Amino acid sequence: MDKLLAMQAFVTVVDCGSQTAAADKLGLSRPVISRFLAELEDWTGARLMHRTTRRLTLTAVGAQMLPLCRRMLDLAEDMQAIATHPEDEPEGLLRITASTSFGQAQLTGAITEFVARYPKVRIDMQLLDRTVNLVDERVDLAIRITNELDPNLIARRLTTCRSVVCAAPSYLKTHVEPKTIEDLSLHNCLTHSYHGSSLWHFTRDGEPSSVAVNGNVSTNDSVTTLQAALCGSGVALLPTYLAAPLVRKGELVALLPDYQPMTLSIHAVYASRRHVSAVLRAMLDFLVVRFPEEPAWDSAVVAPQS
């Protein structure tokens, strides 16, 4: 069985809504499409579609297999594109989105370095604190900080996002420094707004724990939370890519060194491997090198988690 052709038949049947329409689109006979589907089900060991005279519907396994088949087909086309145009010079417009805090603290510097290296490239960078629909909003690349990725998108892991509990020296002059996460209930904690409260997650000696925190300032933007912390308003939980330089300068004090806040991953995310442009391919390769697994901004601020 040609697995790629079988996957192509499966994906096309789903997209077209019938085996007959898929056969017409692929230039194959309906029996061949049916055979491909049967062979793919034999290979996976599970039924992928419910077939009736009126409609085709995906099984639970089929719904999980569909995005994986799309990725495999896109990867095959990407490999062909690389072989066909191995020396394309990156040029043209690339639309990128990221959170405001990461964009301001880290991505802008990377982008300026990239366009200096590739002067034919133009970057349209949208800094937004919401999840962007890449297809609907015509965005080529998103930088997302999460441990839960959309399975329908292609993600390339870049680096690690750690956080640090911190406060300004002016705040600690009038408040006793917390020694345990339970002590945070005695402090004014600057929270990220959702449902009016926050739950901060930690590990200590490999054991997970969480604590509910409250405060009189809540924002939807980490840069704003950082500014409130610098003004001495309270204790903040901030990403190290944003807070680390200020901790090193002594403008913020890292707290609770025995507790490690939840770690997230930073990914470069795009909609499809199909016809990946030379500029997007170059940007992905550049970002992987620019943001290594152990980020430079963590140096001397927090210890890597085991």
Automatic annotation (TrEMBL):
InterPro entries, sorted: LysR-type_TF_proteobact-type, LysR_HTH_N, LysR_subst-bd, WH-like_DNA-bd_sf, WH_DNA-bd_sf
Secretion signal, residue range per the UniProt entry: none
Gene Ontology MF: a single term: DNA-binding transcription factor activity
PROSITE patterns (UniProt xref): HTH_LYSR
Any single GO BP term: DNA-templated transcription
Start and end residues of each HTH lysR-type domain: 1-59
Keyword Transcription listed: yes
Ranges that cross the membrane: none
Keywords for the protein's UniProt record, in alphabetical order: DNA-binding, Transcription, Transcription regulation
Family of the protein in this entry: Belongs to the LysR transcriptional regulatory family.
Descriptive protein name: LysR family transcriptional regulator
